[in-house]
Design brief:
Layout: E1 2-4, E2 7-9, E3 13-19, E4 22-30, E5 36-45, H1 50-61, E6 68-71, E7 78-83, H2 92-99, E8 112-118, E9 127-133, H3 135-147, E10 152-156, H4 158-166, E11 175-181, E12 186-192, E13 195-202, H5 214-238, E14 244-251, H6 256-265, E15 270-272, H7 290-295, H8 297-302
Helix pairs in contact: 5-6
Amino acid sequence: MRRMFGVKFEGGWMAVVRRGERLDLAHVISGSAGRPEILSFDSFLLEGGESEALKRLAQGKAFKRYRCSTLLAEGDYHLAQLEAPTVPPDERVQALRWRLKDMVDFSVESAALGVTDIPSQPGRQANVFAVAAASDVIAQRMTLFAQARINLEAIDIPEMAVRNVAALFEEANRGLAFLVLGERDSLLTITFQGELCLSRRIELSADALAQDDAERRQQMQERLALELQRTLDNFDRQYSYISVSRLVVASERDVSGLVAGLKDNLYVPVLAMDLAEVADFAALPELRQLERQAQGVFAIGAALRGAA
């Protein structure tokens, strides 16, 4: 626990993440033996709007004791993979800002911009992920939390939250593919040494892949397998020095049949995400359910930012 301006802060991070018509809250700290510990995970329906929901939760959850993080919604930012500029580190953000000028529909001069390196081999062209968000989008999020008197210290994006979870499942010196099947679409990431190498959205939802019509379900699963295989093949050509060891699947619906189907169609091992393999949550029996874990991937990932 740390102290700031007379307030004792709990360790780790409390993530407050909107997912559709609910708010997910996750508090994560560093646990024993290098395993993170999930101390709390809750979901609340949005009643009366997000602003009112945050105010109610702030009062009931004593948020003043936590460092809080949140995530931008998918349409509130632009994520681009670019060549790393050959400029001094303190000039890198400004150099990338101008490269993004024609890629976004908002002013890059005042936009919030974040940069993260993509692992590369010596002698190869280095690349980065650049994230840009309009200044008014960031201001709105900050105002929303400030009005609720929530100590918001970090704003991130879903891809980086998923990266934080995926990194827990990596094997030494191997890449990891991680697929999150959500309510509206799916997010596929590939990480290596804890860093994001690839991210893409796939327009297939957990519901579409678990529907009752067996023939239609099979078609959706075959379509997903094809999309995954193409992405893995392209990644292998672009990053031949990174060997992807397996695909981990997180789904808000029962994923057992899908995992079995993907095993038959992909050349990498496929398994369902189980956070019990990489994290501790003894006080949260509901997280033994894999579907509930999948619901919490984004909030838990947002709370995994250097939990200490």
